Amino acid sequence: MVDVTSDGSSSSALALAVAARCTGGRLVCVCRDIEALKQTKSQIEEFELGDVVSFRVGVDACEVVKQYKNIDFAVVDHRIKDCDELLLAMDMDPNWSVVVVSNLCSGRGRVVGAASSVHARKCRGGGIESATLPVGGGMEVTRIGKSISSRSRVSKRSTSKRTFLICEE
User: Fold this and answer.
1) How distant, in Å, are the alpha carbons of 34, 50, 93, 100, 156 from that of 87?
2) pTM value?
3) Residue 80 near residue 104, CB atoms below 8 Å
4) Please, how many CA atoms are within 13 Å of residue 106, restricted to the half-sphere of its CB?
5) Is residue 165 part of a domain?
6) Is residue 167 part of a domain?
7) What is the CATH classification number for the domain harbouring 127?
8) Residue-wise pLDDT tens digits, 27-86
9) Is 163 among the domain residues?
């Protein structure tokens, strides 16, 4: 999982770290400023989740995400510079992955559906579903998968239910 934020303090980082621990995955937190990241890093360490989280600070986010292949889940802050280029640079798992773009109403112009259109160009023949939600500063959730409609039918019959809760001040 990848969490890219503009200001270092990510409300989703702790939840993603817990999800990484539960699934046997890893979380990479990318931001520009070490000072802004200190609070998030201390929370991660307080809950003893440091072994599943890597912090990449002061680096170009596009260069960081290019190092990872088949990303399952990504949260990207729309306020970061060159957000669309970052989305294009991500190698999302074409079989099943999710991209969340947060802070859509940050004052910058945004074409709703841009995340899904970026990934649709990369996932030829794959299914793309996207929804814009009025949560926090607005978010776009895009699900990528080769056969979303058939996978949905299967998941209704068999798999366990997952619940994600994001709380913001």
Assistant:
1) 23, 26, 13, 10, 30
2) 0.75
3) no
4) 17
5) no
6) no
7) 3.40.50.150
8) 998 887 777 678 788 889 999 999 999 988 867 888 888 888 889 899 888 888 788 888
9) no
Q: Is residue 89 part of a domain?
A: yes
**Residue span of the structural domain in which 110 resides:** 2-157
Of 100, 96, 113, the C-alpha closest to 141 is 100
Say which amino acid occupies 3: D
- For 6-10, 19-23, 124-128, 152-156, which range has the lowest pLDDT when averaged over its residues? 152-156
Model pLDDT for residues 76-118, shown as the tens digit of each residue: 888 887 888 888 888 888 888 898 888 887 655 544 555 555 5
Burial of 111 (0-12, 13-18, 19+ CB in 10 A): exposed
Q: How many domains does the chain have?
A: 1
- DSSP string covering the chain: -EEE-SSS--TTHHHHHHHHHHHT--EEEEES-HHHHHHHHHHHHHTT-GGGEEEEESS-HHHHHTT--SBSEEEEETTSTTHHHHHHH--B-SSSEEEEEE-TTSSS---TTHHHHHHHHHSTT-EEEEEEE-STT-EEEEEEETTHHHHHHHHHHSSPP--------
Q: What is the mean pLDDT of the chain?
A: 75
